[in-house]
Specification:
Elements: H1 2-5, H2 18-23, E1 33-34, E2 39-40, E3 43-44, H3 49-55, E4 60-66, E5 69-78, E6 81-86, E7 100-105, E8 108-109, H4 120-127, E9 130-136, E10 139-144, E11 147-154, E12 179-185
């Protein structure tokens, strides 16, 4: 499971042109884009990859790297968001759903009306009990029992020796740490 979640230096960049926006409803999506455990704007996380490509014809094949493996994926622009929907296999299966979604950008709303740029203080206040699931490079990843399929990568690096706080503790995360990426998993592991 850990290798499925870790990403090695993933940066999502996609450009768009005015003509492409007119032809692609995903690029022209109304702001703010709503993100939930079940969707990213007009895209259902339960839809097969082939359906996502039909909805967003500008989607481009890419690879999502996790530890020492690469996974087939599609990069999709949804309004101002950069989205990567990937599968766990070695080849993309167009009739299967994505098992992992990565979202970054601006002008998006999370559950309970939080902004995609929310801080740790705002997340923990609105979402309640949470735990630190892993460190992703220079960032920490947290989840909340209220939304078990969502993960939030924050711009905070754990100290190199983290003996002070128990595993999973969110105590060292400063209130000012903010969201870098949101992940949606095809299943929620109850870790908190």
């Amino acid at each position: 499971m850990r290798s499925h979640l870790l990403l090695a230096c993933t940066t999502i960049t996609m450009g768009s042109t005015l003509g492409a926006q007119a032809q692609d409803p995903c690029r022209a999506a109304t702001q703010p884009i709503v993100i939930s455990e079940d969707s990213v704007g007009p895209l259902s996380v339960h839809a097969p990859i082939g359906k996502l490509i039909t909805i967003c014809p500008s989607a481009t094949p890419t690879t999502r790297y996790a530890e020492d493996a690469g996974y087939p994926a599609f990069a999709i622009s949804v309004g101002t968001l950069s989205v990567v929907a990937s599968q766990a296999g070695m080849q993309l299966q167009r009739d299967e759903v994505a098992s992992f979604w990565m979202i970054q950008g601006s002008h998006a709303l999370l559950p309970l009306g939080l902004d995609l740029g929310s801080t740790w203080a705002q997340l923990s206040s609105a979402y309640g009990h949470g735990c630190r699931t892993l460190a992703e490079g220079a960032n920490v990843v947290v989840e909340f029992t209220r939304f078990p399929r969502l993960r939030f990568q924050l711009n905070y690096a754990l100290p190199s020796v983290d003996d002070t706080f128990p595993r999973g503790s969110t105590a060292p995360i400063p209130d000012s740490a903010h969201i870098v990426q949101v992940w949606i998993l095809d299943h929620g592991a109850k870790r908190c």
